[in-house]
Task: structure prediction
Amino acid sequence: MPASLILPKKVSVVTLPSTMAFFASLYSHEGEEIHIDCSQFDFADPMGLCFLRYHLDLVTYLDCTVHLDGLVDWLALYLERMDFFAGLDKVYCLNKPATRVRASLDHVLVEMTKIEYEHEIDAAAGRLAKAMVGASETSTEPDPDGMKPSPADRLQAVLQYVYSELINNAAFHGRARGRKQSEIWVAAQYYKKSGDVRLAILDDGCGFLESLRGHSALMEETDASAIEAALRPRVSCNRDVLRGRGLDSANQGIGLTASKALTIAAKGTVDIFSGRAWYRENPTGRHFRQLRFPWQGVGVALTMERALLQEIEIASIISNVAPLRERRSFNFE
Ligand SMILES: Nc1ncnc2c1ncn2[C@@H]1O[C@H](COP(=O)(O)OP(=O)(O)O)[C@@H](O)[C@H]1O
Ligand SMILES: [Mg+2]
Result:
């Protein structure tokens, strides 16, 4: 008898525990035909989309055939709009649009991208940042004296910085420790109504704990402790190795810390999960939660207010996170 599962109403980082419980249930049906009832499903954020795409791919690779039943038309259109079905050969959806529909959904923008090769990273980060700025219709007018970059330029610079740091982390740290083949998925969306920008970067690599094992900043051998250590400025798995030889700017251990600081400066929310730990921070507080269904790898989801994001100057945030004086002495130690 074919298996029958129900896709939760919301598939997002906000509902991470139930989202992960659903995905775990997919794997008890190896080799079978799985019917997923999508009639209650009505929202997926970029992280939810990355997860859904990743797991459907994996489960069909394990010889399952998946049917998405009862998916409402506008969601089917939406999934098609972001290339969700591309490459998912054994996933069937009756109301999947036969032809690509682009123009009718130009009020939203989601770019789902799988990053395969290292040389793609910078171009992908630039393209994603540009696409997000375009979707948000941010002003490209410079200030009257022409002294300050336009809001669009600043927004693009911040997004490009964050994308590039986080994708590089997934590609270089996540794919270390015997996990060369790990996958990286990136998705983003601008929500016109709330003015929020949401980004997600998901990898199935070695995770924070494995990456920082043996590092002096790791207080305990736990996933939560590893996230905490990674968020501290100038903590890098490269640090011990490169100590005394000078570090290039890509390896100063500030990429994650600065990405978090930029998000918080835009009154945003940061979600980071790895193994059994899930960390959430926003201007009202921060906390860790334990996940019943762990994630092998790292997921980072950021939600930011566009209006604030476009006022941010990266340089001043970075110099706050890692003051120049300390950075200089660090470089020459
Ligand atoms: N996607 C990831 N997978 C595994 N480990 C990661 C990942 N992202 C970050 N880390 C760990 O967190 C540390 C801090 O990251 P970051 O602040 O970007 O500094 P850097 O990349 O310069 O080391 C990394 O050195 C690595 O140990
Ligand atoms: Mg980094």
User: Anything to note?
Assistant: The chain is about 40% helix and 25% strand.
